[in-house]
Amino acid sequence: MTADAADVGAGAQPTDSDPASLTESATTSDVRRERVSVRHRASVWIPPILVAMLFVGIWYLISFLLGKRNFLLPYPDVVVAKGFLDPGTFNDILTALGRTAAVALVGLAIAIVFGVLWAIAMSQARWVERSLFPYAVILQCIPILALVPLIGFWFGFEFFSRVVVCVMIALFPMVSNTLFGLQSVDRSQRELFQLQQASRFTVLTKLELPTALPAIFAGMRISAGLAVVGAIVGDFFFRRGTPGIGSLLSTYTSRLQGAELIATIIAASFLGVAIFVLFGWIGRLAVGRWYDYGAK
Fold it and tell me: How confident is the model over 193-235, as pLDDT tens digits?
């Protein structure tokens, strides 16, 4: 074969610089990424859906075995019909849910601010941590139900008392997680700031707080669920003012309205999950660009 023929044969073959070859490669890469994305979504959603189906199946079985006493645990379709499809009951649940959500969000906001400030104060000096941290532990260990009547005597039995209960229940995770994050700064980074003779305020704002952000948002997610619990506990005891989910639960319990009671419990659970997911989303927006939540 001559050199010219060899050049012609070589030119007939596609090369990496061929636009058609590059387009085909990009298309193949996009297809692979789409397949990986579909598999990832399936691995995230399919297991909980299967567990939910199993749970509903067991629920139906138990209700069937109860026989005439299945008013204690009505069938799931009865719960949906009486709790969510009945306009009157559903409106009562939504109204109570809105009031409980308002109490929970206000209490959570106060717990976040106070918890972060408390943790920052303890992170600045060992003697401050030794002086204040035991009281955070004591606050966590106090039986809140025993204090609820006393809170009512001090602050009344309306919105403010419910918020106080929320703060007391949701505060400790914010304190402990924020303190852990502030104290998790790498020693070499601290030494670098010391070499630059950075002030304590600079170290706090430029090093410690950015490092602690993942832990702070983890504390927020935990406290979010506890704030909903605190709001419901307050409703159980503080019947005055605007009643929330707790008061509605108490009413349905006293009337033996099992379907409505379970529907209200499900609604309260979804409220806690929604607030939990909300703060998880906010956390990913805040630190997701440089911190991988999915890292193991």
Answer: 888 878 888 888 888 888 888 889 889 989 988 998 888 888 8
- Same-domain status, 196 and 281: yes
User: What CATH number corresponds to the domain at position 176?
Assistant: 1.10.3720.10
Provide the domain count of the chain: 2
Q: Are residues 224 and 107 in the same domain?
A: yes
Residues 82 and 40 grouped into a single domain: no
Amino acid identity for residue 79 in this structure: V
pLDDT band, very low/low/confident/very high, at 28 (cuts 50, 70, 90): low
Domain that holds residue 49: 19-73
> Tokens 């030494």 sit at which residue?
191
Residue-wise DSSP of 11-51: HHS--TT-HHHHHHHHHHHHHHHHHHHHHHHHHHHHHHHHH
Render the burial of 220-249: b for 16+ CB within 10 Å, e for the rest.
bbbbbbbbbbbbbbbbbbbeebbbbbbbbb
| pLDDT tens string 90-142 | 888 898 888 889 999 999 999 999 999 999 999 888 888 888 888 888 888 88
Evaluate if pTM is beyond 0.85. Answer: no
Within a domain: 104: yes
Which residue stretches of the chain are H helix?
A: 3-12, 19-66, 76-79, 87-123, 126-141, 144-155, 159-182, 187-195, 200-203, 209-237, 245-254, 258-287
Reference 114, options 138, 132, 102, 134; nearest CA is 132
